[in-house]
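Retro notes - structure team

What went well: the batch runner handled both jobs without manual restarts.
What didn't: labels got mixed up in the shared folder, which is why I'm recording both outputs here explicitly, each with its sequence directly above its tokens.

Job 1
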Amino acid sequence: MSTTQESKQQGGAPEQGTKLKRHLGPIGLLFTAIGSIIGSGWLFGAYNASQIAGPAAIFSWLIAGLMVLMIGLCYAELGPMFPISGGVVRYPHLVWGSFASYSLGFITWISSAAVPAIEVMGALTYATKYAPFTIAQRVANTTVHTLTPVGILIAVILMAIFVVINYYGVRLFAQINNVLVWWKLVIILLVIATFLVMAFGTTQMGTLNNFTSLGFAPSGAPAIFTCIATAGITFSFLGFRQGIELAGETSNPKRNIPFAIIGSVGITAVIYALLQVAFTMGIPEHVLQSSGSWSHLTFTNDFGPLAALATMGGLTWLAYLLYADAIISPTDTGLIYTTIAARVSYAQGRNGNAPRWLARTNSHGVPHWSLFLTFLVGLVMFLPFPSWQQLVGFITSATVLSFGSGPLVVATLRRQMAGRARPFKLPGGYTIPLIAFYCANLIVYWGGWTTNMKIFITILLGYILLVIFEFTGDRKTKPKLDFRAGAIWLIPWLVLVGVQSWLMDPAEHPVLFWWAFLSNAVITVVVFILALNSHLPLAKVQQYIDDAEEESRDEEELAV
């Protein structure tokens, strides 16, 4: 039973204080997505990708952009149909009910709540130039920069600032974000242009020879793909989700949502590919040769690789701009994800899969209790993942896993409600959803078993919390789980993906790498068919959709 219906049955209108406000226009929503995409990922991604795949990493950025776009296109169809906040959580609820939406929502929420923590880590890693916020350590043959006690203190303060800004509403958030996004775009474009000019016009930086001097793809083709999940590349694109999560707070969802999703991925894919080229060419030849290989690429102050490279090229002014941007860019993205994570737990509360108080909003239309919970979870993330490098793989695989349901929802609704109006409709029937689901499964596989094991442990923890929630409090007010509809495809999917990750781990079993493309195709088709045939009855789906549309109308009435 939905939240709206339960409230009506208990006498009267739905519970007050659970409505968001539509304060985001098309540019605001687009800039929210771009601002989220251009966070700490671009500050470390080119360097990490070069170490893994060498100059061939440019293909990693382009392939990742295409794969993420396939997933994003599915949400571009769903968003205008159901313009409600927390869509990644809410859409599975419409088709398969509470168990499916809780399962995917819990993964989404954990990964979202972790992003402010990683962005703060990214900012403090660069800021180590000025104060001992991080310390370099070797973990699994990789240098990572972990937070010091002083760094942890500053990290907590920054996380608290995110909460305070968000508490006063999405309008204030959007006004601040729009300014910061312009700054971020100018800086990244300035870095690209300057590095390329220096490489082509001076001898202070590298040349085109950098693409071949140590091999174009020194670790082979598999590295191009594994780098997509492990170097922060896919992580750098995941901000497109803001066009979905804030759908209930944009003024014209039919126009703004596809515009934000497609526009943000397309614009940043081009920018990131150019950045990888500029970084590759910007490395002085003597640095590359002294490193001996791309996998051992190091230079002074590599806690801030782009700034360090600028310093080597005699671009002190650009280095200082980068150090400033290393605080501004991640901080802005952390601010955005604090907003998003709160909307995800808000959606869980609206669905009835979590305590109702998570769906309560303050006078500014902000789910304040969800906001405070996001703050606490973000702080916990500093404990098992004390560095940027250690947390990025977890967030990537967890987020992509949760996004995998979107293509399945699109395909199922195509089957159940073929005649329903779709303001933005993908061509090709099931083709794009099937490809998008396949892309999601591949990215999770490339993340490796070491990372994915932590995700599946987190999912098990989520199910323990669900059992506790179901057997505490007033069970009469909780929605039916619709367990069979969700579990019949979701459990096999998680099991198959987990077993494949364990048995065919790219790091442990490289000989099986190419076979994983085939095994992923089999998993994709099997789960796709199961999901298409396990949906709720049409009447139940329509009931959930009616409730979502009523919520959307309520939020529209609050637009000013």
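Job 2
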Amino acid sequence: MCFLALGAVSTVALCWLAAGVRVEVGTWVWPPEGRWDGAGIGRWCSWEGRSWCATFRWLSVCTELEDRRASIEAWPAWSRVRGEPRHWADEYFEGAYGWPWDAMWHREDQARIRFMPSDAQVDIGLPVEVVSAGRPYPDRPSALPTHLTWAFIGDTVVHAVLWYGLLQLVRGPGRLLAWRRRRRRTCVRCGYDCSATPRRCPECGYEVAARQSPWRPAIGLPAVLVILGAAALVGFAAVGRDRFVSDEDPIERAARLGDIDIVRDIVARGASSFDVAIAASSAAAHDQREVFRALVTSIDSEYASGVIIAAIANGHVELAREALRQVSDDDGVMTVDLINTALDAGQTDLASELFESRFVLAPEDLVSRALRSAPPDLMRRLVARLDSDATFHFDASSWSVARRENLEILLERLVPLAEDELALSCLAEALEWARLARRADLSEVVAAHMRRLIDGPDCSRWSDRAPGIVETLWSSGRPDLIVRIIARLREDGVLDAIITHAVDFGRYETIMALIHCGVDVVAFDPDGVRAMCDTWEAELANDPSPWLSEVLSLAAVRARLAEFDAASAGGD
């Protein structure tokens, strides 16, 4: 029991040491080895670092179409990735510590850290909820791991065995010497020959029973080691506690606690504008309204936007309005950030008020957030200000999280203003994003506008972009629209030119899409398709991790070539 207690103490000590010191022995893994996962939009993606006694993972919501590797190993039961993200800005740090298994873990909400006006996330209006003052970008947890896993039992047993082995190794020479003395029938104290009286030395009176006391060697030393280990653990916690203490400035701490006299005194002594802005943001986050009002008058205009954003993001609309009365925004840049923050925080009335009462320099910068959270009436007023120069010049990936009615309002305004080729390309990309986000309702809205453009009076305006549009639609899983485009191109007599262009420039995805949608590309240009397949096959051979879809597509084209060659040979 003493060795098990010592094993438990050493397991906790190792986990706390790894969390506090951040042992970087081992290799960083980014991204984790495993399968390719490109369909994680709106779901967790991770970056991992591993050492011999710890695993560090940073979790965020995938908002871009990128190739990321997702671990094929089962996620632990305590990890956030076992559930869907609740908000698109969710970000967590997870650390698991221990040897030989992860025995203790800690999780920290990175989206709820100390507000900083210079933070790029705040510059674009992310709703950072400030509930505690911690490090803005912690490279280690701000608290010791206290949650246990089932592996804690295994680590405890392993450490207990190691401590037992170490004790036996230390006691080994003494035991060997005692064994040799007993073998010679000599007294272990004075060395007198005890062959005649093996239980008691006739010279010094030493008794064997006293030498074999069960308490001192079996329990006494492990108990001492347990006491020393616990003392070392307490000493580490006392010495290393500064590593887990927030690095707040005095004015920030006073603002968080509501000590308005201390705040005024620090400001009077000449606190920097940056520190004042940090303190005001912390006061807004912790509902210290009097402190916030006292600091607003001292905020430099450079940091005013971030402070008002902090008030809006934390639901203090009246404080934000008070600060807005003291801040001018002639160029309209700050207003865009404030409206975006109000939309993300669910303050749609404030967003509408700002949009109507203040000058907005670039209304197209509001489209991404408005699609997701703006009421339809505000969306209509917003898109009414968009002109032809702003059409489709923003990221279409934001459409995948839009409200259906808002997307309909936007497309009804933009599609007639844009050129057909640009509109079709952007709509095809939007279909791909909607598919990755599993938004069938948005796919139907976008597809309806695509059908109107495809069935328009003249397809020559967008036929040059037809190969790229076909590729995007193929990856979006919309062969019905590809068939519609093929029929339209064939009707206007430009389908042959599209096929020749795709073969000459080796557009594999276009060729595959056309073949699967009923166009006999092989019969149209067998030599060109054969040369294209040879080049394609050489590229796949040099690729260490080729896409399975490309391998299957190449096999399908080769099979069609074989059928064509067999038919041609039979005809001859």
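One thing worth noting from job 2: Strands lie at 28-29, 34-37, 44-51, 54-61, 68-71, 91-97, 104-109, 147-148.
We'll revisit the folder naming next retro.
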